[in-house]
Amino acid sequence: MISKDISKIRKKINPLLGKQAWNVSLGHGSFITLEFGRPCLPAESSAKIHGEWHLWVYCCAWRLEKENRVIAASEDPRSKLEEAVKNLEGLVIQSINLLNPALDTVFIFEQQIVLRLFSIHSQDYEHWMLFTPDENVLTIGPGTDWSYESRTE
To answer: What angle do CA 140, 135, 89 make, to 5 degrees?
Structure first.
């Protein structure tokens, strides 16, 4: 991964800074979803309401920390994970760091809450995805791959 790629990715994710997380939830396995920005009403009344920005922590390992203590990690018991992700609800995202070589990502929220994402797949599975207000999706992974494409294609 070259720094030019990281700069391009930063331009796509920097608008998230200063936004408040809402409807934070634990999905299948250890998947996490977070909404940011205004709610967007779905076309179908039975569909889930998402934010202008929708972050899906998908096929990666993760760890949630508070004040330099580990709250939970992605392989912990589900009951612990469900309780831990509640810590992100309503918090403002202050910083996002991408790390070489595999685009491990660190989301820093207010109240010294940190969500660290670790690449565990070099092929086949994406690490995380960010759905954006302009109908695109930033996909990080597998490996050092990334893309920014229309979500309707």
So the answer is: 65
Helix (H) or strand (E) run with residue 36 in it: strand 32-40
Pick 3-150's CATH classification: 2.60.40, 2.10.25, 3.30.750, 2.30.310.
2.30.310
Mind listing the pLDDT tens digit for each residue in 42-100?
Answer: 777 667 889 999 999 999 999 999 999 999 999 999 999 999 999 999 999 999 999 98
What is the chain's alpha carbon radius of gyration, rounded to the nearest angstrom?
Answer: 15
Residue (of 87, 68, 117) closest to 21 by Cα position? 87
Q: Give the predicted TM-score (pTM) of the model.
A: 0.93
What DSSP designation does 49 have? P
Q: Is the peptide bond before 133 cis (omega within 30 degrees of 0)?
A: no
How far apart are the C-alpha atoms of 110 and 108, rounded to whole Å? 7
- CB-based burial, 61-87: b 16+ in 10 Å, e otherwise: bbbbbeeeeebbbbebeeeebeebbeb
Instruction: Copy the structure tokens of residue 104.
Output: 């491990």
Amino acid at 132: T
Helix (H) or strand (E) holding 6: helix 3-13
> What residues does 55 pair with on adjacent strands?
34, 130
